[in-house]
Structures are given as structure tokens and as C-alpha cells.
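Morning. Coffee machine broken again, so started the prediction first thing and wrote up yesterday's gels while waiting. Chain of 243 residues, entered below exactly as on the submission form.
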Amino acid sequence: MELPAPLRQGVDSLLEKVPLPALKQAARTLSERYRAELRDGRLHMGEEMAVKAYLATRLPATYAAVRASLEALADARPDFQPKTLLDIGAGPGTMLWATTDAWPELEKAVLVEASAAVRKVGQSLAAGTIAARTEWVAGDATIDLDGLKAADLVSIAYVLDEVAPASLPKLVDRLWQLTADTLLVVEPGTPAGWQRILAARQQLIEAGAHLLAPCPHAAPCPLAPPDWCHFSRRVARSRLHRL
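Came back before lunch.
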């Protein structure tokens, strides 16, 4: 799976003059923070160089994962045509790009992101290329969701792992309240990510949600540790990504 051409070109432009050694170091630091699931009060992408490292190394795989998830949603719900998107922890707009690729008729997107550096890059990448009206909102996923309006598609991707476990039930409850039709939760394909998906899934079942996926819907998950539910996706990598 490849990034949409306008997004790929925008990323290439942003990274064109970044020194490779500095980018490599920033990528290593960012990767270590994600893998350790650090929750030390600092944003993973609080600085501009960290954002560029994300664009170079993590964006292609994250895009592929969320685009595949939307593909599965479209297959299960061929009648679903969302007009509005609310994405929590939007990063540089990864879900926005994937959603407009899946449903070009999307009319409005509200993107909630805590990092000013990430919002700036996301706005730059989307300017003049995303047809939907976009609104970027400064906010933390756990405390700044009041005042938001419900949307046809509410999404949260690669964010639950950044939230303290004690705060997750309240967050999932708020996301469900904001969902006018469909809530999409995407987490890393790790045993810990699977456990977060299972917990959110159980909470949503108890709230009356109809589950499209993972596969057993509302039935008990048949997998048991050390097995875990995860999916692979092939990703086209740029020369810079390979370096």
C-alpha cells in the first residue's frame, strides 16, 4: 500500500533538506518511546524534528493500517458513506488522508491533536489538497473532548497506548457518546495493543454497540495468550524510509 500521491509529495517536500543523521537520531528516539509505551508527560511528537521523523519512518505503516481498517469497514458496511469525521489524536492527519481516500465525498473533518508542531505540519500537508472542510483542534484525548459535536465516523488510532490505563474507560465512553454511526479504534498489532482492543470492545458491547470487528463480533474472543489478534499489511517505503 502506498501513500496518496499528494501526501507523498508533501512529505518529500518537508523532508527535502533535513540532514539524514539528525533524522535518524530523531527516528530512533521516537521509535524507542513508542515501543516502550512511555507515559512521562511529554508528547511523542512535541518537537518539529520528531514530527519529521514520524513522517519519514512511521507514517507509511500507520497509514496502511488505518486504510486497511477503513477497507474492512467499507466491506462490512457497503452502505456506509460518512459525511463527517472526528479523529482523536490525529497526528499529522493520517486518518484524514485515509478517510478521504476511502470516501472522497467526506464533507467535514474535525481533528483533535495536542501537539502544536504536529498540527502545523498536518495543516500544511492538507492545505489545497484535501477537499473536505477541516478544523484542527488543540486538545488532549483524555480531558479536552467536551464541546465537540458528534460525527458519522469517530476514530482513534495509535492513541490508547499513550493513555494511562485508568483513563481509558472514560475515554472510550466519551468516544461512544460522540459517535453518530461508527467508531473505529486502531491499535498497534502487539499483545498489549490486543488487550486494549479487547477491553474497549467489552466496554462497547456493554454500552449496546454492534461490533463489526474483530471477527467474533460480540462473542468471546477465541484467542488466548501467548496468541494475540493482529494483522499484517505490506507497505511501500520511500528511499529515505529505507535509509
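The chain has a mean pLDDT of 91. Going to sketch it on the whiteboard this afternoon.
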